[in-house]
């Protein structure tokens, strides 16, 4: 009972601070929300921020992009592109940025220009490493291929995010 009350209190405080406009994590002082990726082939997603909470499901792919929405000690509340989420121990997450391609047969251009030559095409669901991003385009790489794609065709990068 005490653990359930603590979990609800953490959830309430995290939600209240986000609604109040707080944009930094209380533990890391990093932006909330922010994108990270899974570090291991199996990442347990728990119902609450401790090992005693039930595992609701498991990410079964290394490098999967997730969005951190809250922090509590060594735990990060995350959600995936479908909105499913839960608590993950920080040691299972990486700051390496990845994205998921959301458009089937996405043209990957040599330069950030729709008239540039196409270097590859990626299928929906491909997980790619995220590089530089300008206002409309991001440089990504996967499977030995790399190039520029429209930012709007990716999940795992904010629409207004600029990366050097």
TrEMBL record:
Gene3D superfamilies with a match to the protein in the record: SH3 Domains (2.30.30.40)
GO MF, any single term: aminoacyl-tRNA ligase activity
Keywords: Aminoacyl-tRNA synthetase, Ligase, Signal
Listed InterPro entries: DUF1058
Superkingdom of origin: Bacteria
Cleavable signal peptide: 1-20
Annotated protein name in UniProt: Aspartyl-trna synthetase
Lineage: Bacteria, Pseudomonadati, Pseudomonadota, Alphaproteobacteria, Rhodobacterales
